């Protein structure tokens, strides 16, 4: 049930690009997220790469099974994106096992 005192023009307009209302400055939340992911990558090295690439691969595999054939990713085709993410997982595991970085497991 709607409140008769609320007129549709009283609802602030949403700025879909920035996430705030039309009279507010946009919230650059994505930049904060990117910085946090970069920090985790810097601190955790190949472990972070393997985790995030694996998480992305699982997400794209589910989306592909649900019917997504084209992605907003630069690679476009979801098969290419899945191949790229799988390659990143392999490189991250190789970096941990073989040790082309300071993050060797053994």
Automatic annotation (TrEMBL):
Disordered as annotated region, ranges: 1-21
Keywords of this entry: Membrane, Transmembrane, Transmembrane helix
Membrane spanning residue stretches: 33-60, 81-103
Superkingdom per UniProt: Bacteria
UniProt protein name: Uncharacterized protein
Lineage: Bacteria, Bacillati, Actinomycetota, Actinomycetes, Micrococcales
């Amino acid at each position: 049930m709607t409140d008769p005192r609320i007129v549709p023009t009283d609802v602030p307009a949403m700025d879909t690009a920035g996430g705030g209302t039309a009279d507010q400055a946009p919230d650059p939340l994505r930049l904060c997220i990117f910085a946090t992911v970069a920090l985790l990558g810097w601190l955790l090295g190949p472990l972070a790469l393997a985790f995030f690439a694996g998480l992305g691969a699982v997400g794209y595999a589910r989306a592909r099974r649900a019917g997504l054939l084209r992605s907003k990713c630069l690679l476009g085709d979801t098969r290419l994106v899945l191949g790229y993410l799988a390659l990143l997982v392999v490189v991250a595991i190789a970096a941990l096992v073989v040790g082309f970085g300071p993050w060797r497991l053994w």
